[in-house]
Amino acid sequence: MTKPKIATVWFEACSGCHMSFLDLDEALVDVLSKVQLTVSPVTDFKDYDFPEVDVGIVEGGVGNTEHKEIAEKLRKHCRILVALGDCAVFGGINTLRNGLPKEEVLRYGFIETESTVNGVMPIHEELPALLDKILPLHEVVPVDVFLPGCPPSPEVIAYGLTEILEGRIPVLPADMIHFD
Amino acid sequence: MESKSKISLKIDGGEVTADEGMTILEVAQQAGIHIPTLCHHPALSKWGGCRMCVVEVEGVPRLVASCVMPVREGMMVVTTNERIIKSRRAVLEFIFAERNHNCMFCEKSGDCELQQLAYDLQMDHMAVPQAFTPYPLDITNDYMGIDHNRCILCGRCVRACAELAGNHVLAFQNRGPRSLIGFDLNETLNGSTCYACGICLQVCPTGAIFNRQRTHYAVKGHTKAWQATDSHCPQCGLLCATTMVVADNTLLKVEGRLTADGKRPDRGQLCFRGRFEIFNDFGERLRHPLVRNAKGRWTEESWENALDRVAKKMNSLRDTAGGQVLFGIASGGVSNEVLIAFRDLLAKGWSAGTIDTFDGSHYRAVLAASRELGHPLEEASWRQLPDSDFVIACGADLSKRQPLLLSLLRRNVLENGSRVAVIGPADVMASFRSFYFETDHEDLPAWVDILWNMAAQASGGTPKAKGKTQKTGQAGGKRYLTDLQKKVGMPAKTRTALTDMVSQYLASKQPLVIAGEALSDAKCASALNHLARLTGLKDPDACGRLMILKRDGNSAGAWKLGIAAQKRPGPKRRLKAGLMLLGEESAADIAVWTGRSAPEFLAVISPHMPTKLLDKAQVFIPRPSWLEEEGTYTASDGNETAHVKKVLTAPEGVRDTWQTLLALADRTGGAPALKTLEQLTKKAAAELNPGIET
After folding, report:
1. 3-state DSSP of B570-595
2. How many Å apart are CA B3 and CA B12, to the nearest integer?
3. Would you tell me the crossing angle of helices B113-120 and B82-98 to the nearest 10 degrees?
4. Structural domain of B391
């Protein structure tokens, strides 16, 4: 029997959810022995021509055109799509910018901050363009599993993965849901 | 009285009985059945605004809000099924989607009712797209901020401000999704008539209204480690009922016990002192005993050596010069147990000639007034306020020391139509007073004299002296009164208003006179007497209508335990050595005792580094703050005792104050009679004979 294949990506986020995944400690060995990790920041596999995978895991909100493109691609190539963490589920801390015009956000981030000298706006045809608002993943593509948390605890991640590997769609019980 | 008829109904299939008039929610809660709520608060009026508590009632096609639906005989209620949960979750998601509820950067996370509902209803994502509309943030006030992004418009704050505080500052403004909680007429929080009592903060279910004084924030996992202890706030003599919430030896919040004690007329409110200023930085903590060596340098010393040094000096002066040269001065903000141990140490151990409190001069003014009257002043309790139909507040700056009384006055005006007259220099009661006579501190005694004379003449029941004088116990003649009025430069218009006020006072059924600190100031001793006589006009047998405000949290306890000296302490040059027991005394308080010539020897027991005494004292001994020490305190009317609990652990090595005092007593040559805290508490209770214990 072949092992289920997993792909993970991170969008507009801090990588904390992936860190929490690594924080599974010794259980990580067990999980990794049961699955085959394909495209993932963990494997440093940056080619987004996804193979057909069983589980796609997304950390982070959809903040620019590249995120949107990858999200759509991943959705096409995975059987079960998981939104991991508050940013993928709700938009998260990045939604602080949603009340501001994106030009203002970019100008502040790339030109006006105290530490910036000769800043340049990251607007170029080869660079992905910032979306007007950062969106939760399920507003861009259909999502099967939601694991909120900032970050989701290793227990939540383990619970979610175990349920999926055993052929169920996990729904977090009340005492496992956390938004912080 | 006819008892309410019983109703029987079924909730989730189980038979329950209820009183007529109860709501489905109340009956369910009584039966231990959980129904989620959000806008509902047991201490506030019923609202029915959020629809989180919806239930199914057989025969009713739509879901009903259980918090506002009265029960009736034979009702069949279902509190949980798929339809109900779907409805509750839809409501919850709309609330989340409307504004910007981001738990990970909200200090309320972990202690938030909205968040808890999302967990309980397993809201693992939002089917409704979020609006992401930015809302304003008001941080104009130092005590609280309001972030409208986190507001769910449940209206608890609006109801609490009106119903509990009686202040009516908060209201809904604008309509629909633009609705905001507003202050007065579109004011900022700080520019409004808000007194920062913080009742809105306490009832807010989300992080919309937040504490700006708190330095430690709720973080993940904390709630489980929190300890909530029911205690009292001993910062003024009202001893408000509190719940102190602590985690990791850090105070997180102080809440008023809104539903705990229906007997307290404040209904569980607190003021800005109890809720916010408790987080103030009171200065560097004193952690070890310090002594000043021969070169004048402060050095750390062991407890035993530091106590030995104090005892040796005091003992030797007692034995050579006599106890008359020794003094002890205690804060009025410490517990009865500490005060008794202090008094016994000074009086029995060292035969000290002078024992006093920092507010001793006020005590002596009260004593003088009662001596002049010929009988003890029977003080009125603050609990009488809600039953009073006419209140005269005289020389009282309520906003500073007892802000809670403002709320009681205000509510009494609004709910019972009582009237308030203010005489004094500062008036914070502008919004609800009926009479205001502005006068400075200097003229206050003359004003009170005028008031008493006018009332005495108007009531005609008191013998009058003739001419320009008045004898003790008598009112002056007309001439005397005119001269006084001339002296304070009273215009005819004011005279008319005063006459009006006096006649209203005399016509009232339950008047109350509040004497502020300015009245018990040494300069005003006779004024207190005149006020007592004024109340005597209404109540000739007892003067139980005069409420005397005290400066410190346990002033009444200190006075009743005989710590405050009956006579003004003698010239300071005769005092050679003393022990000072500090709470949070001001520099001015301390200066009265050390100002011109510092005594030869001064030992100070204090929770904080007494920086003002660095060049005046020889020994500093640390003590816990009131949050770190168990003890009883006596309310300002002297009739009520409250247990203040230890909620924090003092810095390592710091001993309880009573232990330090008993250790000193052990070194005076005779062992102290009382050896444990329980014995001290028992002794305090026996001496104070409190009417009510809380």
Report:
1. CCHHHCCEEEEECCCCCHHHHHHHHC
2. 27
3. 140
4. 363-549
In whole angstroms, give the CA distance from residue B558 to residue B658. 15
Which residues from chain A sit within 8 angstroms of residue B132, using beta carbons?
95, 98-99, 133
pLDDT digits (tens, 9 = 90+) for A32-68: 899 999 999 888 877 778 899 999 999 999 999 999 9
Tokens describing residue B502: 């006096």
Q: Give yes or no for a contact between B342 and B661, defined as CB atoms under 8 angstroms apart.
A: yes
User: Does A90 sit within 8 Å of B126, measured CB to CB?
Assistant: yes
Residues 6+ apart with CB under 8 A from B149: B99, B100, B101, B134, B135, B137, B208
Q: Is residue A91 part of a domain?
A: yes
Per-residue b or e along B646-660, where b marks 16 or more CB atoms closer than 10 Å to that residue's CB: bbbebbeebbbbbeb
Query: For residue A44, what is the domain's CATH number?
Result: 3.40.50.700
Which residues in chain B have their CB less than 8 angstroms from residue A172's CB? 122, 124
Do B401 and B540 lie in a common domain? yes
Nearest to B75 by CA among B52, B57, B102: B57
pLDDT at B1: 46
In this complex, do A174 and B124 lie within 8 Å of one another by their Cβ atoms? no
| A83-97, A140-154, B68-82, B534-548: least confidently modelled range | B534-548
DSSP assignments along A81-144, one per residue: EEEESHHHHH-GGGGGGGGS-HHHHHHIIIIISTT-SS------TTSPPEEEEEE-GGGTS--S
Query: For B102-157, where are the E strands, in sequence order?
Result: 137-138, 144-147
Give the residue from B609, B200, B96, B318 showing the smallest Cα distance to A95. Answer: B96
ipTM of this predicted structure: 0.95
